[in-house]
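Hi,

I'm pasting everything inline rather than attaching a file, because the server keeps stripping attachments. The sequence lines come first, and each chain or strand is labelled.
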Amino acid sequence: MGLFASYVVAVVGAVIALLLVLLSRFDPSAFQALRQGAAEIFAPVARGSGNVTGSVGSMDDNVTAYLRAGSQNLELRRALDKARSELLEARALRQENRELKALLKIGEDNSEAVAVTRLLGSTGSSARRYATLDAGRNRGIESGMPLRAPEGLIGRVLDVGPSVSRVLLLSDVATVVPVRRSRDGLPALASGRGDGNLDIRALNVGINDFERGDIFVTSGTGGLYQPNIPVAIIVATQSDGAIARPLAHPARVSAVLVERAFRDSADVKALPPAEGEQPRDN
Amino acid sequence: MARGVSFARPSTLRMRVTPIAAVMFASALPAMLPMIATFPILPPLGLLLFVAWRRLRSDLWPAWIGLPLGLWDDLFSGQPVGSAMALWTIIVLFFEAVEYRMLFQDQWIDWLLSAVAIALAIFGGVFLLSLTGVSVSYAVVLPQFGWSVLAYPLVARLVAMLDRWRLRK
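And the predicted assembly:
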């Protein structure tokens, strides 16, 4: 190929590539099969290297814990005293909750896990945050299923392949999770900032009494996430909301739970429609 | 016996495949490592190797090489498909436009040109994301840009080593 021809190919190719980028605006799942295939090919390598270097993610935590042993001890003792009294309170509330739920005929546990598995890795350099999940159609994973760890929400399943799936992490800029403040139920929206933290914005305009240390849990609105999954803790307040740190760090959790999307669980459908709301016919 | 006397050439396969395989391996590395980053901290290794090879051997590849290699990188980077295809090609065209105007070259100019290329790729990547309707602050990728520029001389060393092995008989 001549020199000139190769320039023509390069320029035309670059223009087509830009059109491909625009295409993914209108069809975000374009080239899903290609990416899925790529993830599938390298999954065995990731599985192997994951077994070797399992605990690298938490090394920095261990070191800082040693350095801060003295002050941490005091802090923890104080926190423990507080937790003890709150535990007693919580026990009473749980009992009350159980009775009220029985009255409403809501099942105690509608958060049945589809699969317990682990994350294999994440995308490298892009500002988007996707991770690869070590389970796919072979384990009954479906697109849209939420992912959580004991500490809190991790993200949700985007594309499903034969044995691995792509996951949109909580910190991705396209993530929006309806949340509520755990202490008073103030509704808010959590959205990824792209830098690992979340933006919290109150749904009611004008209300901005966020404080550092406020904890947010999923509210169940929107039907994707089960209610009461811990999401994030506020680390800084802003004029129009707050910045929060996700409670579950995907690199530090050893196992993740894939749950059914909230709306799909049978118990919710059995709920009587609220007053004024038309019953949905399926 | 002095080197260079023999007329035997290294195998063409090794000569042609090594640079491409190295870039492709670096692009796919995040899919092989058990690392989960909640923000873009990892330098774009595929891009760094691509720039280093192109700077070391400007006649190695045709101008359109960014299209296939960029497509491969897009499959692993999380960017929309087409992003690295376009940006890597723009980088090659940028090098083609600038290099022959240079009166002299040294490692500082090499570093500077590569830093411009890395900036094109990283900030251009954020811009292309905004075209897909996802707005990320440019500040988010600033640390990544810093790491990448700092890591470039190391990658260039690595590529020079690979190049010596590639051309060894």
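Residues 54-59, 266-282 of chain A have pLDDT under 50 and may be disordered.

If the labels don't parse on your end, tell me and I'll reformat.
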